[in-house]
Every structure is written in structure tokens, then in C-alpha cells.
Protein 1
Amino acid sequence: MKKIRLSRIKKIGCALFTFLSFSFFMTGQSAINHPLGEVSDGASQTISYKGSRNYKFTERSDLRLYQNGRYVGLQSKIVSAFIIPTWTDKGLVYEGDFYVDQDTNRNKSQVALGIHEAIPSSFIINSDGNLTMLVDNGYPSFRSFPAFTSRKIKKGDIWEAKAMRAVDPLSKGIITKMPIYVRYTYTGDDNYNGEPVYLITAEWATRYNMGGTTMYVDWGGDKELNYAQGSHKATIIVSKATGTALVIRDTVDETFVYKDGNKYQFKGTISLFTEYPPAIDRSRLIAALKKMDLLDDEEAEKLLQRPVAKDDAATAGGLPQETGSAAGKGSPDNFNDDSWEPINTSEWVSGGNPDKDTKSKTDRLKKKIEDHQAKSQQASKPAAPISVDNTEAGIRLTIQNLQFKADSAELLPGEEKRLDQIAEILRLAEGAQFLIEGHTASTGYEAGEMKLSKERADSIAAALSTRGIGSERFICKGSGGKKPIASNDTAEGKALNRRVEITILE
């Protein structure tokens, strides 16, 4: 087989999660503006991503596990994520909260409740189209997969491209990255759920630390992993209208050999899906919020429309993609280059102007608290109201000054009314998932703040689940004191920073 030069390949896929990265590059509006139409046997067409939209990504593994040739059981694992693209003054940032459902989970109490622990991931796409991981906790596990060639293709055409895969075969919590070379074939056209689609096959071999010209070792990965080998054959369904990889089904036969001599072989399938969240009836939510005196007419009007990330670069022809380069350094053709490692950067604040947005939100929230306190005649220390604002992820409810026991996630008596109100609102968002994010003031003890904020998010989820909201609908995360909305130099500012935010994801 004649090998196609990588310089001719324009990587525009991103992880299984390309989705992950780029399912969002596809929206119904873009489909109307840029229809691709049917491709006949003799016609040729360039496949590309278009658009911008929040989406849910799911990776399901059903693999038979053999240890040293002996069958030991079925490994079932589901990894899901809600991905939100946001344009900032530094470029397009994709933020995702992944969560894992499998047989073994570290937090048994939360598994019993069905509450999901969020695993953050984010990456930035620069104006030149490069993708750089900002927060890398192992997800997405496939990067730059699938990838499409920049040239026009017809049925039967073949192209090759590089991708990266992050693995943790034994669920040790240690991620190992492995580069892969993928061979794609455009095999035909079909319809999927009434939508015209391309059918593509993909094949690649697992070759980790196997010697030869393709030798690669991730020095930041599992040092006990000696080598890995195997084969993958995947079928991919890609939307003609938008370029979304709607479904990927990967047939796996892969072996991981560890330094202690144990061999673990996995056989089965990994299935990947991109889905869009259900439409939320915002008018019902707004009516309930106004009835609770949480919105005025002006605020209600602003909530009618969900803000969507705008992608000026993409509409101008730029197709974001992941390369082997980190922040433009190094060569994507060199798998041994350190540029394949993720860049750890400080946490970003989403939005066009972080300083302006933060001040505006703080001012609104302070006014809400002052107004509520002025009206309240029933308590000497009334709880702050529920603040409501519009985000690209969905409608966000901010609960200020929740009363917990000191340095604890145990709610004190007196919060029942606000929790009842929130449960009433969430029940109106049928089919939606909810992101619960805990925040603390910053006191200099980062690890403790992160732990406490996560535990308080879990506590709120558990309280809401007793009010009729399915616990499996909650994704919980803690941000500690990393996302302040006010100064931590004053008692008032610290009080504002101690909050729990609940976003109705859409």
C-alpha cells in the first residue's frame, strides 16, 4: 500500500470525542447554510465540520477480559460528558465534565445514590486551528479521531492520519498516552435516523513500546506498563450535513503486558455516540421563576434565548483540529517530541470579558441579597435569594450563603424552602441533566477547599434527589476557591464566593 504523506492530511477530527472536541462544530443552522447533499458513486466531496453547539458524548466499552490467557469476566464501562464550546478573547475553549459508570468506583456512597462525579477537561482552539489541552485528566480518550483528508474524495478512497489515545486498562487512575496511525476508507452513503450520512471504516494497530521506527513511550504514564499491541477495526457514521461523527463502533483485540509478567487481553467493542440535549421549555421555567419572585420582567426577557458560542474563525473557513503541537511548538510528525504532552495552565474564566462579566454578576447578586434582606421580616439572618443568569451551558441558579455546619457538607435546618423551590424548577426541565458546582472562599488551603466544595455539591444533589429529582441526572464538581465572583479580602466578598451553582444543561 502506498502511504499517503501526512502533510496532505488536514486533521479536523478530534477524539472519538472529536466529537468531544468537535461535535459542537455542527448545528442545524449550519446544515441549512451548507448542505452537502447526496454523493453518487462517481462524485467527489470534501467532508468537513461546521457549526457550534453544546452536545453530550458517550463512550461505552463492552470488553471480555483475559488474564494470562484465562477469561476473568466482562469489563463494562460508560464514559459520558457534556461539552460546552465558549469563545473567549484568547480563542475557543471547550469545557467538558466527564463522568464514569463502571463496576468499580472509588466513591461508593455516591455510586449508591447514582450521583456522578465530574472529571474536568478543557482544551483551546487557536485562530490557526491548533488544539491544545488545558486540563487533561485522561478525557477525551481518543484525540484527533476521526480525521478527514482535505482533498475531495469518492467512494473507495483511502487516507491516513495520526491520532492519540489515552488508556487506563486496569482502572488504576494512571493515564498512558499512545499515538496511533489510522487508515480510513470512504465506503458509501446511507441514512441514519432519517439523516443522510457517510459511511467510513477505520483500521489501526496498537504498537506501544514495541521497538522499531514507531517506538513511543509515555514517560508520564503507567511505568509498570511494559508494552501493548493489538488491532482495531471501526465503522463510522458521519452526518453529511454537518460533519458530525454520530456513531463509531470499534471492534477491539488488544493486549497489555506489564513488568510483573501479567498479560491482559481485551476483546469486544467500544461504541461512541454524539447526542444533543433535549430542548428545554424556557417559558415554563421563566414563569416559575417569576412566580417565586426570582426574576423581574427585564431579566425574564433575557432568559428567553439561550446564548450560543459564536465561531467567526470557523465560518471564515478555519477548521479547528488537534495537532501534535502543544501551543504551536514541536512537530506533529514527531511522536517522541515532548510537545505531545498536555500544557497545564491556570483555570480560565469563560466569557468575552472576564473582569467585566464577574463585576456585573457580583453587582447583580449583591443587589438581590440587599433587596431580599430589606423585604424579609421573618428572620434575623435571612438567607440570600436564588440568583438566576443565562450561560452558554444553560440557565444557572446560584444559591448564596447556604447554611452548612462549619467545615462540613452537612446542611443546617432552615434551607428547606430554597431547596423546595429549586426542586420545583428542576422538575420543569424534563429530560435535562444538571451540573452542580460547589464554590468556597479562598483561604489558602486549596486541597481542603476543593474537597469541601465537592462534598457540598454532593450534599445538595442528595437533598434534591429526596425531592423527586432522579439522582442519575446530577453531575457534581467542586471548584474550591478558584472561581471567585468577589474579592476574598473582605467578609462580604468571601460570603459571595461561598455558593453552589446549579446549571440546567441544554
Note: The two ends are 46 Å apart (CA to CA).
Protein 2
Amino acid sequence: MNARPVLVIGRTGQVAQALAHVGGARVVCLGRPDADLKNPASLAQALDRHMPVSVINAGGFTLVDRAETEPDEARRLNVDGPRALALACRERGVPLVHLSTDCVFDGDLARAYRPDDATNPICTYGRTKLDGEHAVAQELGEHLIVRVSWIFSRFGHNFVRTMLSLASTREDVSVVSDQVGCPTYAPALAAALLAIAQRIAEPGFDAWGIYHLAGQGETDRASLARDIFASSARHGGPVARVSDVPTSAYPTPARRPLNARLDMTRTADVFGIDLPPWQEGLDEAMPVLIREIANA
């Protein structure tokens, strides 16, 4: 194994925490002020200090609804920061894995989205993430854009934690049933990202570009909530009845794509990676989440 670490930009988000948990000594995770996407000098200094074999950008503005009222901040973190990071990587000959999102699509396609499908974001967050993809590609040839979706884990804020928290205080929850996606367990995602980050540092790798990475299996939000409560029940945690509602009855500041399914064929073909079924991750994370919510 190469002794040089994988440098992760980000420290407190779900994916960054999962990368630190899974990667151990192979990974250096840096957040502000040590690696600040709004401070290009700090990014360059982090690269010089740690001399990584590759970089994973797991940082950025990820609050989808808040991006509607803070578009400038979202753009600084999702476009300007990644551009500066890509430039610093280019100057040092370091390949970059930049995480993006299903929100670059409008959700109108009838099948799972492939990396080469046309993009058409329908919210500010999605537009800034797409512009960030373009910025990285313009500055650095040796890059991968990895789009991810519906991430959950024991780390940070996510849909699973939200459902369990609601069930601890109420008997019924209403959940949208017309948003479909592929839930993704952050530790499984992290293991795949680390394998990819090592592979792209090998001599001769040239399959640069856009990839999709999400858990096996698709579901809608309401069905996912029912699976969450079924897993919680098996582990002695809170449960609630789920009422299906359409997205139109649950308006949010930012529109989400109704179809967030991502096709992983290219990722499997190039890297030999298929993430496990998301249900496995749900059962693995559940005991810790139940304890944390009970003690909150």
C-alpha cells in the first residue's frame, strides 16, 4: 500500500466522518481552518503538508433548502472552493475525487440516471453542484466526479435519524411517496471511495470523468421510512405509522428530483465496485442511532 495518505477535505459531514472511520491511518480528514474551501491558500498548504496520494473533496454546502436563501454562500463552497482545490491539485500532480449529487438532474427520466445523461438541476443547491463539477473539470484533467445520493449512517443528520427522532415523539408520520432513489450507507460508500482514490493514483489510470455511486436497490421515501421503523422494531427502538403523501402536499424551499436513482454500471465496469444492499447498512447503523436518540 502506498504510504502517502488520502487527503479528505471535510471533517464533520457524514461522508467525511465515515471516511475517517473506515480509513483509519490511511486517511487525513481536514476541515476549517486547516482546509477551508473559502481559503485557497489553506488548501494549497494542506496539500503541501500531507503530500497525499489523492484527494477526496467531501466538503461543501449541503443544506439543500438553505441554499435557496444563501445562494452566494452555496456558490462559494460548491463552485469557487472546488475550483481552487482542483487548481492546487493540478499544480502538484495530485488526482482529485470530487463528490457531487443526484440533484444535478431534474428527476423526469423514467429510468436510473447514467453519468452521461443530460443534467437539468431544479434547485439552487443542484445548480451550484453542477457548476462545481464544471469548475473541477475545467481546472484538472485527472479528476473524478462521483455523484452520490440519499446518504445515511450513524454520523450526522440524515433521513434515518430524522425518522427515528420523529417516532420517539409521535405515533404517525407523513412521508412523501413519489420520490424514488437508492439509499446509500455512508461507511460502504467510504470504503468504495477509498478504493477508488487508491486506484486513480496508480500509474496508467486514465478513465477520468463522471461516475455514480449509490446503494443497491431502490425505494421511495415512504417505503424507506417503513423499513426504518421495521429495523428499529427489531432492535427495540421507536416506531411510527407512515402515511403516504405526494411531494406536492409537502412543499419545501428547494425542489427535489422525484427520480433520484443513479445507474452504477460504469463504476462497476471500471472499478469492479458494487455497493451492498442499503438494508444491510440500515441494520448496522440502527443500534447506535437508537441509543443516541434515547439519550438525546
Note: The chain is about 40% helix and 15% strand.
Protein 3
Amino acid sequence: MQAVWFILFAVLLGGYFALEGFDLGVGLLLPFLGETKADKDRMIASIAPFVLANEVWLVATAGALFGVYPMLEGKVLFGLYPVVVGMLVGWILRDAGLWFRRRIDGPGWQRFWTWMIALGSLGLAFGWGVALYGVATGLAAWPVALMSGLVTTGLFAFHGWTFLGWRLPGFLGLGADRSRKALLVSAVLAAAPALVVLAAAAPYLMGHSAPAATLNVLSVMVLPFAPIVLIAQVWVWRTFGRGAVRTPSFF
């Protein structure tokens, strides 16, 4: 069961990076792309159907971390406490910006929450890079950890740019429309840091899994619901895919 749960954990974390990566990437680009309020509204509307569905992957990843690798979970929260707190603050700022930005039409209000979305997205994207390096090395060298944060931030921004080129044909201009294949490639690039770290840490994780009895109970409780999550994700993409006009109004 250790191998099964390691593969599932890798799928969850890599899937989160691939899916939430474009949400965060669009947030990073929000202050810099689009000349008008309507342009920025379109950028947020493009990710609106996916945000909550993508965050489910983070909840599932955290649940797997707590249940399958309890020793690692304690190490992560203790050793990376400032980073984790910063990421939580970024998550709150990003989501608050998405919810509050269009509640008032004033330009100052919307400009403020636009920057909160961007800063929150930056905190999450950069924090994930630092956290991955910290898990792999224990933050042995802060300059390298900061470089890791810059790498994930750049990859997420590229993924967001590619997503906009796919979701909103003609929006970016300059021939920047992107195909489904290009979006898949950028998703793989966004997930690559997480998958590389997990591959390097595989022996340690496999040797520090929860007891077999615990994994068996988790399997009975969790695995039957995995197809439901996948079906829901497929439904979201089929319903709100490229060119779809049905966009939730809560953002």
C-alpha cells in the first residue's frame, strides 16, 4: 500500500500544481495584462469556473499528507512555519480579492483588490517553490530556496499566460493564441518542480509512511471517492472549456 499511496500523493500534488498553477499565473499577470477594466474582468472570468474545483486538489493533498506521512507533516509545519504562514496569508488575500473586487465599481477599490490578487498569487507561487526546496533539503541554503521560489513563480506565470491564450482566443494579441496541446505542455512544466522533488524523496517517503493498518483504513475511506473527484473535474472542463460562455457570476 505504500507504493499505491505514494503514487496517489504524487498525482494529487502534481495535479494541484498543474491545475492551480494557471489560476495563480493569471493572478500574477492580472496587473500587467489588459488595458481596461473589462479586460481584467475577462481574465478573472476565465479562471472563475475552475478556482474552487482546483482548490479541492489542495485539500486532498493536505489530507493525504496528514494521513499517509504524519511524520513529514509535522516536520513541514515546524521547519517551514514562516513559509506556511506566508502561503496561508497569500491564499486568503488571493481569494478575498477574487470575491471582493467586483463588489464595488469604484476604480480605486478594484485596483486595490487587483493588486491583492496579484500579491496573494505571488505569495502562493513563490512559497510553493521555497516549501518544495525546504522539504527536499531542510532549507540548507536560503539563496537556493529563493531561486526555487522564482522558478515556480515563473512557471506558474507562463502557465497562466498559456491558459489565457487557450481560454480567450484573440485576447492576448500578437499571435499568442494557444492550443490544447500547448496548455498541456505548460501544465506539465508547472507540475515538474513538485514531481521532481517527490521523485527524489521517494525512498524517504516510502520508508516513513503510516503503518499498513492505517493505510488500509484510508484506502477504504478515500479511494472509492477518487472517481467522483475526477468526474467532477472533467465536467468542469467540458462545461467551461475554450469558448464557453457560461461563467459563474460570484467573482
Note: Residues 2-239 form one domain.
